Q: What sequence folds into this?
């Protein structure tokens, strides 16, 4: 019992960091797990409690609002403890209800004498009366918002973009657990590694292997550079550059370097210049390159991608990748806290930055050179509208139509992967060729 209590206590601390102090869930979780002595099973429980509670936060808050008169009167940690407890009661079948209640009471007692009475009363009342029915919510978008724990503006935005049926499939897919996805660096070893890791082939990427779950960063194959962690959708980017080996490539928004090192793996005498604004992120790119044995083909530079044309001359690069800063809506399954920190207005201000970056880097590309523009978002303001506006502003470029054997990810010459299609991140890839100076 004490072990589970420790796991829940740690989960509560991580959730406080995320829900109260606005920490990123993945970073907060890694930080707390790193310093803990918990078993692998307990770490699994902490991960489940954190991601589950964050992913379903709006749903849990709605449930709790029927049992708590004024949440503002509760200490933050106490409210978070109740959210985590309701998550367990409603979504984790393997944990007996009485154990969930007892351990929540014990945790409350540890934190603040007397608070356990409220925790006990609220949770026992929930068990007695049952949780309210989401179907009773009259307004459709509000109902979907609560059912799928997505802000109402995002529900209406995705419906507007994808229609009722497909957006429902997207909403449902975002609540499924994220697959573990890796890229194999030496394809001659792919079958051997697949067997070793009990993984299966990615449908999207011929360099990728996927597994329902797995912690690959601790594997010796990772340490020796035979595999690297990269979502299967993002593995499609580097191949679009059709590298022969001797090109000078710019990766304009490179950190943490997954695509940089993938690009470098195609180079022989060529070089990829990777840019970022922060030293610690440039160090990550360098570490990645060293682990994968491509450091001799990677050069890092601290630079704002919007200033590329001031720093590099004309005809400097044969290929350019702009994996642009974006809203990250395609990553909601993996980073569920993103959805609570965004507003619709973000899309247009991000579009400005995206176009500014493209407008700067395109001045350094030689004639017949190629720019690949990608994002991990699925809204048109950051994708198709950027493509269209860039081409209107730059008649010296034409769009290159991309191909893939999965035809359902092709739209208007671009690749658009929504999360429900293959259980991957949501992702967008497009391409331009410079046809005149």
A:
């Amino acid at each position: 019992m004490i072990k589970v209590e420790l796991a829940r206590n740690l989960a509560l601390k991580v959730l406080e960091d995320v829900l109260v102090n606005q920490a990123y869930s993945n970073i907060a979780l890694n930080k707390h797990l790193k310093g803990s002595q918990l078993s692998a099973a307990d770490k699994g429980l902490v991960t489940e409690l954190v991601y589950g509670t964050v992913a379903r936060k709006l749903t849990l808050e709605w449930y709790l609002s029927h049992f708590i008169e004024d949440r503002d009167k509760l200490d933050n940690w106490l409210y978070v403890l109740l959210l985590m407890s309701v998550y367990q009661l409603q979504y984790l079948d393997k944990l007996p209800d009485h154990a969930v209640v007892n351990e929540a009471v014990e945790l409350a007692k540890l934190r603040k004498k007397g608070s356990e009475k409220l925790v006990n009363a609220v949770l026992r009342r929930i068990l007695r009366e049952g949780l309210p029915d989401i179907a009773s919510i009259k307004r459709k978008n509000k109902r979907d918002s609560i059912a799928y724990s997505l802000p109402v503006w995002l529900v209406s935005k995705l419906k507007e973009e994808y229609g009722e049926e497909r957006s429902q499939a997207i909403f449902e897919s975002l609540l499924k657990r994220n697959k573990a996805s890796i890229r194999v660096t030496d394809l001659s070893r792919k079958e051997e590694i697949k067997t070793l890791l009990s993984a299966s082939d990615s449908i999207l990427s011929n360099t990728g292997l996927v597994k329902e779950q797995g912690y690959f960063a601790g594997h010796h194959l990772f340490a020796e550079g035979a595999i690297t962690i990269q979502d299967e959708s993002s593995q499609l980017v580097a191949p679009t550059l059709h590298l022969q080996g001797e090109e000078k490539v710019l990766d304009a928004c490179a950190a943490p370097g997954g695509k940089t090192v993938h690009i470098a793996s195609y180079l022989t005498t060529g070089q990829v210049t990777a840019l970022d604004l922060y030293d610690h992120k440039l160090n990550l790119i360098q570490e990645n390159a060293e682990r994968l044995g491509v450091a001799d083909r990677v050069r890092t530079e601290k630079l704002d991608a919007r200033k590329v044309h001031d720093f590099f001359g004309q005809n400097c690069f044969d290929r350019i990748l702009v994996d642009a800063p974006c809203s990250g809506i395609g990553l909601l399954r993996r980073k569920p806290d993103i959805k609570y920190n965004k507003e619709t207005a973000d899309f247009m201000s991000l579009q400005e930055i995206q176009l500014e970056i493209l407008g700067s880097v395109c001045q350094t590309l030689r004639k017949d050179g190629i720019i690949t523009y990608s994002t991990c978002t699925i809204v048109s303001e950051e994708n198709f509208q950027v493509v269209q506006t860039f081409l209107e502003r730059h008649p010296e470029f034409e769009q290159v139509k991309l191909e893939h054997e999965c035809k359902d990810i092709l739209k208007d010459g671009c690749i658009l992967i929504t999360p429900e299609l293959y259980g991957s991140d949501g992702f967008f890839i497009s391409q331009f060729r410079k046809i005149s100076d």
